Amino acid sequence: MSTQRKYSLILMGVAMLAVPAVCSAAPISLIAGDGFGTSSFNAAGQWDSVAAPTAGNDYFNATFLLRTPPDGGDYTFAGDSLTITGAGLAAGANNEALMWKGSGTTSIITVANLTIDGGQLRHGQGSGDTFTLAGDLTVGANGANIATQGGMIINANLIGSDTIRILDAGNTEAARLITIGSGLNTFTGDIELFGSAADRSRILLADNANLNFVIGASGVNNSVFGTGTATFDGDFAFDLSGAGMTIGDSWSIASADSQSFGATFSVAGFTDLGNDTWSFDNGGPSYLFDESSATLSVIPEPGTLALVMLGFAGLVARARQRRA
Fold first, then answer.
1. pTM for the whole thing?
2. How many CA atoms lie within 13 A of 88 on its CB side?
3. pLDDT above 90 covers what percent of the chain?
């Protein structure tokens, strides 16, 4: 090997040693909560990195309050992810939260990978202001609390399988409504309405948005329940892969104090029978969803049911003949 070639290889080795190793970024956390009129959402604020959020980093509120900017603009969180932690399912709104402090009705806050794990998502403005969340929202192992003082539209895709608790809105204003707007939700947990009265905890499943229910043995499933008002204009999707198949098995899907199904409601893969009922022929016993009770149940397959009814009609006819 020539002397020049040897020197070139040595220089290349030295250069490689001089380049620092590439490591995954350390998590970045708040060290204090945002005060009135301030925001760390897009600024150095209270982050322990003393820098505004940037791509390549994961951010945590560390149970402190993170406010969005106090104006009507649209903002996108610049970090790779944001995790809001707290003590778990709560009885009321608190400051272990991502709090929207915008204004107006058109503001959109986008977080590509938002996780609420025991913390809260809060609308902290007036009843005439609307907060829209876009991106992805994962419910962590300690559940997620959602509290609103006005309109909240969750267009973020809901992910996870733990409980979402919709907290008391503070009064009975109809504007204090939480709308689930995504049609790409994979969430399979419970939704608990936690108002002190039916009109103080409100949710709307918007047209073409979806909720998923995993059906197990009779009575085993996730559901929407509690003290509140639920309106379903979107779509229910039932995972029947592990569902009971014994005639008479049943599952309560929704049991809010006040609930209703709109004209655009549907059940994915089921046939609309009219009279607010939907059926799915499983090649044996069939599944029937009844809007009036918000209950899914196993019934005889349509052919068998028809024969049973025909036989019953024959028995009635014979009994009448004997009496004649």
1. 0.87
2. 3
3. 83
